[in-house]
Amino acid sequence: MNLTIGLFMWSLTLGFHFDFEYQIVNYCKIRRYFTHVNFLLSSCLLTMASINRYARVRQAQMTRHRQRYISLCTHQTTYTTILLITLFCLIVNLHIPIYFQINQQECYARPGLYRLLFDIYFLIFYAILPPMSMIAINLATVVQIRNIKRLVHPTVSRREYHLIILVIMHSITNAILTLPFTINKFVYYSLVDSNVSENSRFAFAVTLLIAFMNPGLSFFLYTLTTQSFRREFVRAGAHDDITDDIPKRNRQLSQSTNHRCWMQELIDHHYRRYIKYMTFL
Question: Which end of the chain, N or C, is surrounded by fewer C-beta atoms within 10 Å?
Answer without folding.
Answer: C
